[in-house]
Amino acid sequence: MDALLFWIFAIVGVFAGVMVVWHENPMSSAIYLVVTMLCLAGFYVLLSGPFVAVIQVLVYAGAVMVLILFIIMMLHVPQDPVQREGSKPAWIAAGVVGLLFVLRLAGLITGEQPTSFPALAEDFGTIQAVGVHLFGPYLLPFEVTSVLLLIAIIGAVILAKRRTL
Description:
This protein is mostly helical and about 160 residues long. The protein has 6 helices and no strands. It has helices spanning about 1-20, 25-45, 50-75, 90-105, 125-135, 140-165.
């Protein structure tokens, strides 16, 4: 059952990730990004990390995506179709290189397949383990991220005020 869920999350997540980049409407791209983040939360559940999955949904699929949608709506992004740069052969070559990269990562080209995966720690994904790492060695990146989000909110408000005046 885990393998079936993995493949469902993988296929839906990759499709939604491609649609984030490919779709011309920024609102639709943001919704596809939410789907990608929900698939990532599904992976965390499969890895026995329910707390990390809930945080993924609450923080990223919830709060950050609301912020992104709010900014898109405040900036009044035009609905004109985006003209993609590059020729058709360049897009095909990029797709082939991307596919080869993914196959190499999966180990399908060289035939390298992991025989076993390392065992997870006993407290993997628990609130205490996440808290120890988040407020220990990762405290500075955590704080920098919060400051960057604050700067993004302030910038969006300033840009929106400038357009209304």
